[in-house]
Specification:
alpha+beta; 22% helix; globular; single chain; six-stranded antiparallel β-sheet
């Protein structure tokens, strides 16, 4: 992560005291931070091998060097086909080495300061307007006072002055008239110089302004362009050179929804660092038209979406503004390993999608191989024709309920499904508004431990023909603020105006 590190060691044991004999310990930073001018991005994780006696040694950036009071989410994996298990949160100081058990027992203090000031929407709009005005001013000067033309005019004026002097000697012209001409010529030269300086000053007042999608792109550009103003879209931050100095609006990062170790997954096709042409995650997707074998999970839970069959992979596409993975409605599909939601009866789902073709039965996503057969499952469907434009949220404890609304496809849409079994809650929100709900009896129990399928039912039917701009599933009820912020985030990714 960063140049400054501390050693954390310990033993990983099972509940009965037996040590893990293989596997990894994963540390995921819950919030973005800075170490001097270096940006430490949230959602990035580091992993360290567990030895056969259960011991491990990790080298971590001491995040108390930062300024936001964040923490690492600590997870373990036994090397088998099981999900990562979250064991707690730690904060690492600068005076190690440390024992992991002691860190897990320690309180995590709040940050004492902040590395950015938060702009209100009005302040941000005013800042952008000021930059736009400076650009217009500079363009106006450039059009009125072309520097090359001014230079040529000054040269010509000097030649005219020399010619005037020669003429005066040759013809004996009136000395007073010649003096007046020379004064006028001098005034023209001064005016030309002033105009050139004004144009130069106006151009210098306009900073180099660039916009990138990720921290990595932003920082790479900023390191070689220290005077630039750099907008990073996710998380929404404004840089000057390599140093973060403002967060725009509320600076919301969806990764914060997993900061307490919540089970779930977050997929963001706009972040090319999470798209891969192979399931191992070694060959990155770099340009439109390439197939996507894996979408890495940005939640820190390791619930990556994959497709092992090359012919069944979706395609990365972009229109130059938004980015997505496109599914063909024939056989394209992806899935995770089992995600264990067995300890919760609350689920919140957020998706940016666009349905493109008529079909009687399409699944945007489904948790378990078939909601009709499996208790503790859910899905979001896009049934019927595009002209119907319907989306349907299905929720099941031991019994099933649905909430649905038509009239939205084929335009991009932000979908939110809010489920709770114990209170019989099934809510469907579309583009920032609650459009449908059901209070039908959902039965009992929690959600299950199943794979999550994207664009299909179990990889064999209900194939989705459309675009996926982003998806987040978390095993708890999102707060009202989180619902609004996540919907706004996905609207920006999907080209939707809320």
């Amino acid at each position: 992560m960063a140049e400054n590190t501390q050693i954390i060691s310990g033993y990983i044991v099972r509940p009965n005291g037996d040590p893990f004999t293989e596997g990894v310990v994963r540390f995921t930073l819950g919030r973005s931070d800075t170490d001097e001018d270096e940006v430490i991005a949230a959602g990035k994780y580091v992993e360290f091998d567990i030895a056969t006696d259960g011991s491990f040694a990790a080298e971590l950036w001491p995040n108390t060097r930062g300024n936001v009071g964040g923490a690492y989410v600590v997870q373990v994996h036994d090397g088998q086909r099981t999900p990562f298990e979250t064991v707690g949160r730690v904060q690492v100081q600068d005076d190690g080495p440390y024992d992991l058990a002691a860190l897990l027992r320690a309180d995590i203090p709040q940050a004492t300061n902040t590395f950015y000031s938060v702009l209100s929407q009005d302040e941000y709009d005013a800042f952008v307007a000021e930059m736009d005005a400076k650009v217009v001013e500079a363009q106006g000067y450039a059009e009125s006072y072309d520097v090359a033309a001014i230079s040529a005019a000054v040269t010509a004026t000097g030649e005219d002055a020399a010619a005037t002097a020669a003429d005066r000697v040759a013809t004996g012209e009136d000395a007073t008239a010649t003096a007046a001409d020379r004064v006028a010529t001098g005034e023209d030269v001064i005016a030309a110089a002033d105009s050139a300086q004004a144009a130069s000053d106006a151009a210098a007042a306009v900073p180099d302004i660039k916009t990138f999608d990720t921290y990595a792109e932003s920082v790479t550009y900023g390191e070689s362009n220290p005077a630039a103003l750099i907008f990073c879209r996710d998380p929404q931050t404004l840089f000057t050179g390599a140093a973060v100095f403002w967060s725009l609006g509320n600076g919301f990062n969806p990764g914060e929804m997993f900061s307490d170790g919540e089970v779930g997954a977050w997929y963001d096709p706009s972040d090319l660092g999470t798209l891969w042409q192979d399931t191992a995650g070694t060959v990155p997707v770099t340009s439109a038209g390439q197939s996507v074998a894996r979408i890495s999970d940005k939640s820190g839970n390791g619930n990556h979406l994959t497709q092992v069959t090359a012919s069944k992979r979706g395609t990365y596409q972009t229109d130059g503004v938004n980015r997505w993975v496109e599914f063909d409605g024939v056989d394209d599909a992806m899935q995770t390993a089992a995600i264990d939601f067995a300890n919760t009866e609350q689920i919140s789902i957020f998706a940016g999608v666009q349905k493109l073709r008529d079909s009687s039965s399409q699944n945007v996503l489904e948790f378990s191989g078939n909601i009709q057969q499996n208790s503790g499952s859910f899905n979001i469907q896009a049934p019927g024709s595009v002209s119907d434009g319907e989306y349907r949220a299905n929720n099941k404890g031991t019994d099933q309920a649905s909430a649905f609304k038509g009239g939205f496809a084929p335009e991009p849409a932000v979908l939110s499904a809010l489920f709770r079994i114990s209170t019989d809650m099934t809510v469907l929100r579309i583009n920032g508004s609650q459009e449908a709900s059901s209070s039908l009896d959902l039965g009992t129990g929690n959600y299950g431990n199943y794979p999550l399928y994207l664009g299909t039912r179990a990889g064999s039917s209900h194939f989705f023909n459309g675009r996926v701009y982003g998806l987040l599933v978390v095993g708890r009820s999102a707060t009202n603020d989180e619902i609004g912020q996540t919907e706004t985030h996905l609207a920006d990714k999907s080209g939707v105006t809320l």
